[in-house]
Write a structure and sequence with these properties.
The complex is a heterodimer. Chain A is mainly β. Chain A contains no helices and nine strands. In chain A, strands 1, 3, 4, 7, 8 and 9 form a six-stranded mixed beta sheet that branches. A three-stranded antiparallel beta sheet of chain A has the order 2-6-5, with no helix packed on it. In chain A, β3 and β4 form a beta hairpin. Chain A is globular and about 40 Å long. Chain B is mainly β. In chain B, β4 and β5 form a beta hairpin. Chain B is globular and about 40 Å long. Classes of the chains: A mainly beta, B mainly beta. The interface between A and B is medium-sized, with 20 and 18 residues.
């Protein structure tokens, strides 16, 4: 069982938006603004797409955005494209040099 | 170009040992902490271990504490994960990850099976 809870799947039509939630506790997501999101295509390593809740690394499109409220963080992908179909994972710092991950969400572009 | 390349994975029997290596290039290795993250077949990501830039601070997930040892050789730009008393549920791809989780290696597969 993963420390952070994500829905197993989410979907959206091409060009529309999809939002993925990531629920933790007051000891991780709720305590720190160190929530990150990763995109993983089959057979490849995860790729960082958001860090510190809503910051995008260089090269990540602005279509990817993040937010956080209390113990729940969210990833929104706008203007869905076929290439966005992937598994998405959240992670959070949990104190004492510990990080925790969510179980992952498979995003399907309809 | 920042790069992390893992090696050392393979098939090992339950109770056996294995040492993973992660060779870094493209950045000043000794300035940054590093992590190991694993992914069992068809499953999600699991945080395994971490080490500070000088090796003075380490972290282990409860699932590997007492069995795995993380270390680094800054003179060789290399990170290690010594794994012992391996169990079936240690079977996974093991990723070497940069301090800010912005650099991931390609992963090395560890299979624990008799």
């Amino acid at each position: 069982q993963s420390a952070l809870t994500q829905p197993p799947s989410a979907s959206g039509s091409h060009g529309q938006s999809v939002t993925v939630s990531c629920t933790g506790t007051s000891s991780d997501v709720g305590a720190y603004d160190f929530v990150s999101w990763y995109q993983q295509h089959p057979g490849t390593a995860p790729k960082l797409i958001l860090y510190e809740v809503n910051k995008r690394p260089s090269g990540v499109p602005a279509r990817f955005s993040g937010s956080k409220s209390d113990n729940t963080a969210s990833l929104t992908v706008s203007g869905l494209q076929a290439a966005d179909e992937a598994d998405y994972y959240c992670s959070s710092y949990a104190g004492n040099n510990k990080y925790v991950f969510g179980g992952g969400t498979k995003v399907t572009v309809l | 170009e920042f790069q992390l390349v893992e090696s050392g994975g393979g098939l090992v029997q339950p109770g056996g040992s294995l040492r993973l290596s992660c060779s870094a290039s493209g950045f000043t290795f000794s300035r940054y902490g590093l992590h190991w993250v694993r992914q069992a077949p068809g499953k999600g990501l699991e945080y395994v271990s971490a080490i500070s830039n000088d090796g003075g601070i380490t972290y282990y997930a409860d699932s590997v504490k007492g069995r795995f040892t993380i270390s680094r050789d800054n003179s060789k730009d290399t990170l290690y994960l010594q794994m012992s008393s391996l169990r079936d549920d240690d079977t996974a791809i093991y990723y070497c990850v940069g301090d800010a989780f912005d650099i991931w290696g390609q992963g090395t597969m560890v299979t624990v099976s008799s």
